[in-house]
Amino acid sequence: MTDQVFAKMREPLIFEKSRAGRRAAAQAPDGAADTGIPEQFRRADRPLLPEVSELQVVRHFTRLSQMNFSIDTHFYPLGSCTMKYNPRACNALAMLPGFLNRHPLGPVEHGQGFLACMFELQEMLKAVTGMRAVSLTPMAGAQGELAGVAMIRAYHVARGEEHRNEVIVPDAAHGTNPATATMCGCVVRELATGSDGDVDIEALKQAVGPNTAGIMLTNPSTLGVFERHIKEIAEIVHGAGGLLYYDGANLNAILGKVRPGDMEFDVIHMNLHKTFSTPHGGGGPGSGAVGVGKRLLPFLPIPVVAQEERDGVARYRWLAEDDLPQSIGRLSGFMGNAGVLLRAYVYMRMLGHDGMRRVAEFATLNANYLMAQLARQGFTLAFPERRASHEFIVTLKREARTLNVTAMDLAKALLDHGFHAPTTYFPLLVPECLLIEPTETETREILDRFVDAMVAIAEQAKTDSERLKGAPYTMPVRRLDDVKAARNLDLAYKPV
Amino acid sequence: MSELPGDLLYTSEHEWLRQEEDGSVTVGITDYAQAALGDLVYIELPETGAEVEEGGEMAVVESVKAASDVYAPVSGTVIEVNAALADDPEKINTDPYGEGWIVRLQPEGDSGDTMDPDAYQEFLDQLEG
Amino acid sequence: MPFIPHTEDDVAEMLAAIGVPDIDALFDEIPKDLLVENLDGIPEGLNEMQVARLMRARAAQDSGALCFIGAGAYEHHIPAAVWEIATRGEFYSAYTPYQAEASQGTLQTIYEYQSMIAALTGLDVSNASLYDGASALAEAALMAVRANRGSKSTRLLLASGVNPRYEQVANAIAGNQGLVFERLAYDAKRGTTDPAALDDAGEPPVALVIQQPGFPGTLEDVDRLTDWAHGQGALVIAVVNPTSLAILEPPGAWGEAGADVACGEGQPLGIPLSSGGPYFGFMAAKQQHVRQMPGRIVGRTTDLDGAQGYTLTLQAREQHIRRSKATSNICTNQGLMVTAATIYMSLLGYDGLRAVAEESVARTRELAAMLAAIDGVDPLFDGPHFHEVALRLDRPVAPVLAALAERGILGGLDISREYPEHSLLVCATETKMPTDLAAYAGALAEIMKERA
Fold it and tell me: For the whole model, what pTM was predicted?
C-alpha cells in the first residue's frame, strides 16, 4: 500500500440525528386510542428512541451497510465458516408472502406448503448424511450441539447409566464443544492430537472408560485434515459404551462424498448457514439441524415433521410430546429458524444430487490449489505432508520470531488489499495461524489475486514491518483499542 | 524476562507466594503469567472469609484475548483481597510482585507444592525451549 | 454446475499446480470404503425458474387466512424499508464482526440496537441478542444462578403468566444443569399470580420470573412481585413484549429496585411471523451483572488515530476463549434480525411504537367486546389486558377453531390444557381493521348458533 490518504467513511449514531417532534409518519397508526390500562401499569418516562425521518433512516443504514465487508462484496476466506455465495433465489423464495405471513401456531391445514418443504428437507438431510432421522429445530450450530449432547445424556440415563458424564473432546476442537458439554451437565476430557493432525489413538484408549458418555469430533478436523482413523475411533468409543458426536462445522468438505452415518456417528449437527449456504447475516441467524442414528431416535428434539397418506394424498403434521415422549424437549418457542430452513431447502433443490457432490469436490480443489500456490511462495503450512480438506492452515511462527510480524498483522493488512482475513489464532494448537477456507464458489482468478496479496504483504514484512503493524489504513477505522473497550465499558448511547 | 524476586516461592501454574511474618501468605501471579495474558481488563476476586483448597480455583484474571484461573497454592482461608484491583487490574501488569498482589491467605496444614526462584527459572526456561 | 465458476481449463491447470491427476485424487486420505456411490433420496437439481414455480405453489397453499393468533408471535405492520435494507448483501452476507475494522456497519448497528433495548427495558446494558424469546429465558435463568452468588438455590419460581412454551424450553436447556422451575398458581378471577401462592412458595428461590403482559394477556402487579422476590434474596427476571414497553412500566422501574434481568421475544419489532423464525431474543440487565451475560456484546472505543469505533468486547466470557467455563455455548447472535429490528425501531421512534401498542390494545378490546356479546362466549378473566384476551366458550374450542379455519379465519389458540376447559386466547393488533373484527365476530356467532 502506498501512503495515499483515504477519505474515511464515518457515520454518526442515529441518535445524533434525532430532533424532538420529527417522525417517519407513514409507518405507524395514529394512536391515542383508549387502552383502558390503569396508571399503575403505565410507563412514566419517555425512552430514548431516535426521532428521525424515513429518508434519514434509509440513508443511515445504507451507509452503515457500506462499512461492511461481505461475501457479496469481498472474498471472505474465513476458515471453518464456509463463506460461500448465498444464492439470491433462496432469499427471494423464502420471503414469499405465503411463507412470511404464516403464524407458527396456525393449524397444519394452513401450512401444508411450508410443512412439505420441511419434510423434504429432513429427508434430503438424512440422505446426504446417512442418518436415520433429522430434527430441524435447533436455531444455530451451538444449539445443535446442545441437542446432540443432551440426547447422548438422555440415552445413557434411559439405560440406567446416569454416571456416564464424561465427554471426550480433542484439544483442537472449537470452544463450543467443551462449552456445550458443560451446559449439558457433563465434564470434559481433553484429548491430545498427534503430530500428523490425527487423534492420538493411544491417548484415546486411555481416555475411554466406564464413565465415558461420548466423544465430540469434527471430521475433517479443525486442523483441515481428514481424520484417517475414524473407523478405529468409532470402534474404541462404542466398545467402551460411549457414543460418537459429529460436529458438522466442516461438512462442506465431504458433502456427497462421505456420510457421517457411514462413519458410525450416532448424532450430528449441521450448520445450514455454512454447508447449505443460508446467509450469515452479520452473525446469525444460523440453523443447526440435528441427525441421529438408531440409538438416539427416541430422543430427538421436537417438533419434527411427519408425512402421512390420506386418500392417496400426502399430508404433513407435527410430531410433538405425544409422539416422542422421550424427546429431550423443545429448544425454541416454536419450531426453530423456519425461514433459514426454507433457504436451505431451495439451495438443496437447486443443487440436486450431482450439484451436492460437486460442492465437496470444488471446495477441496480450491483449498488444495490455494495451499499449493502459497507453499510455492514460501509460506509455511502447518501440515505440509497432509492433503488439505476444504481448508488448511498457514503458520507465521517463523515470521513472528524473525520479523516480529504476527498473524494479526497479516490479517489486518489483507483488509487493505480488499480481502477479508482468514480465521486467525484458531485452532489454538497452532501458533500464529491462519485458517484459510476459500469455498467452491470462488474463481481461480480470485485465488491467484489472494496469493499475490499474501506475497506483497510478506515482502512488506521484510522491508517495512512498522508500516505493516499499523494496518489497516483504508478501513473506516484503524486498529481499535480492545483493552480500552473492555476496561471502560461503553455499551449503550447516553445523551451528553 | 525480568529478575525473579528471591524471597518468593512459585508454582507451576505461575502463582507466586510470600510467607508473611504473621503466618499468613500473600499470593499473586508472576511476571511471566501477566506477560502471557497481556493487558488485564478484569479480575474476579474471592470474598474475604472464603475457604480455598490447594490447587482449587481462587480468582479469575481476564485480558481481551484470554481468561485464566488463579489457583490457590495452599489450602486456607482468604483473609484479605486486593480490592484496588477491581478498578485497576492493570496493576498486575505493571507491578505483579508488588501492588498487583491478589489475596492474602491464612494457610491450614502443610504448605503446598512450590518451587524456589532457581527451580521456577529452570521451569520457565523449559517452557520457552 | 450451480454456483461453481470453474471452467474445464481452470480445473486442468489447478490440478496440475497441485500435482494430482484428477479431483478424486484429492480425497485419497479417505478410506475407500467410506466413499459414497450415489445419493439416493436427493432429487435431480432444478433451475431457478423451476424451483421458483415450486415454491410459489407451496407458498400459495399457505396464504390468505385472517389471523387472530398471538401467544408469543404477533402480526404487525413492517415498514417496507426494513427488509429492503436488511437484505442488502453487505448486511445479509457478512459474518460475525471478528475483523472489527471491516465490520463497522454491523458493529455500529448492534451498538445502536443495544442502546434502544436498554432504553426500552429501562436497564443499563443489553447484549447483541440471543436466538429467540424462549431460549433467552433459559439463558437468563442460568445467568441469574451465576449472578446471585448469595443464593444456594437452583430453584426458579415462575409467575403464573409465564408462557408455557418458555417453561418447556427453559427446562430442556437449563434443566441439564440442575435448574428447577416451579410455576405459581393463578388467581381464577384475574388470571394473574395468586398472592396466596407467594405465601406458600417455600424456601427462597434463586430468582423469580415475571412475564408482563402474562400469557393470557393479563397484567401482573409487577411492583409487588418484584419487591417480594428481592425481599427473599432472589433476583427478578422480567419476560416482556417489546411493543408493550412503549406504554407499560419498564422492568428497570419495577418495584423499589427494578428487575435485574429482562428478556423476551424480539419478533414484534419488524420480524415477519414466518412460521416461527428466525426471530431474536433480547436480553438486558443491570450494569453489575454484565459479566454474567451470555452472548456477544459490542462496545464503543477508539482507534489508533483516536477516532471512535465499535468492537466486540468482554469476549473472555465466551466459549471461544473460556471453553468449558464459558457463560454459555452460544456463538452467534441473530445479527440480521437485530439489523431489521434496529431499522424498525428507528422508523417508528417512541411515538410510533406507542401508537402501535395503543392501537393493538384498542383493537383487542373491541374484538373482545364483540365476541363476548355472542351467546356462549364470555371473558375468562377480569381486569386490564394488553393486546390479547382469554375467552371461555360453552363447548370444546378445537371444533370451533376448525370451523372458523374453514372460513379462512384463524380464531386464536386453544389454551384448555393450561387454563380451564374451553378456554381460547385471541389477539388483535393494529393490522386488524374494523371489517376484520366484524368478519370474525360474524363467523363465530354463526358457528356458535349452528352447533349450539
Answer: 0.96
